[in-house]
Design brief:
By secondary structure, the chain is an alpha/beta fold. The chain has a single domain, classed as 3-Layer(aba) Sandwich (Rossmann fold). 32% of the residues lie in helices and 25% in strands. It has six helices and nine strands. Strands 1, 2, 3, 4, 5, 6, 7, 8 and 9 form a nine-stranded mixed β-sheet that branches. Strand 1 and strand 2 form a beta hairpin. Helix 5 crosses helix 6.
């Protein structure tokens, strides 16, 4: 459930996936591409081998017509198996997740294991995995060893989550993945927080505010 204070509503969104699938690159590209009202600096904690150990935090926000401040905090989790405790800590109290899979054929087992740990860790930290706003991104589509899109779609066709194909290194699909998560997040929480009825914020305005765009009239 989003953190709610007087005049402020804060959403915690987490990028989850196997090691080196491109979670941090997604946030770096988002930081470059987004221009919301209030955009903070991106903070990164890294290990000696240049992988993200704890998290990246990309804070930003905008104001609803009512004056309510909508804030977002974006985190990545460490992909390495050794840091499962940290993954659970970062995932705790999250309001939505982008699962970043590696499109490389050789990474299929790692993707499956990481997705399984996502489901298990959600349960362990008290999140309802079945109803959590979730987007699945297949990153690294630029690799010559990438699994064909048609094969991935066939495998995931019965899944209820939006599926996005991306190359975070090139910036492709990064904003689309985030927009898909924003829409799922809005639909999940709009009624309980009276975003439309009380704060004059419909789904398109919510997305536009987060992305730093003008909502369509």
């Amino acid at each position: 459930m989003p953190d709610s204070e007087a005049g402020k509503l804060s959403f915690k969104l987490v990028y989850y996936g196997p090691a080196q699938s491109g979670k941090t690159t997604n946030l770096l590209r988002l930081h470059e591409q987004l221009s919301p009202e209030l955009k903070g600096e991106m903070m990164t904690l890294e290990t000696q081998d240049d992988r993200t150990l704890f998290f990246d935090l990309l804070p930003f926000g905008f104001r609803a017509p009512s004056g309510l401040l909508i804030k977002f905090r974006l985190f990545t989790v460490p992909g390495q198996v050794a840091h499962d405790g940290t993954r659970k800590a970062v995932l705790s109290r999250s309001d939505g997740v982008v699962f970043v899979a590696d499109s490389d054929r050789a990474q299929e087992t790692n993707n499956a294991e990481s997705f399984q740990t996502l489901a298990e860790n959600c349960s362990r930290v008290g999140l309802d995995f079945e109803h959590l706003p979730l987007v699945v991104q297949f990153n690294k589509r630029d690799l010559p060893t990438a699994v064909p899109e048609a094969e991935i779609r066939a495998r995931w066709e019965s899944a209820p989550w939006p599926l996005v194909f991306a190359s975070a290194l090139r910036g492709d699909g990064v904003e689309e993945s985030f927009e898909a998560l924003l829409r799922s997040t809005y639909r999940h929480y709009a009624e309980s927080h009276e975003l439309a009825s009380r704060h004059g914020l419909d789904e398109d305005m919510f997305v536009a505010g987060a992305l730093g765009r003008q909502a369509a009239p």
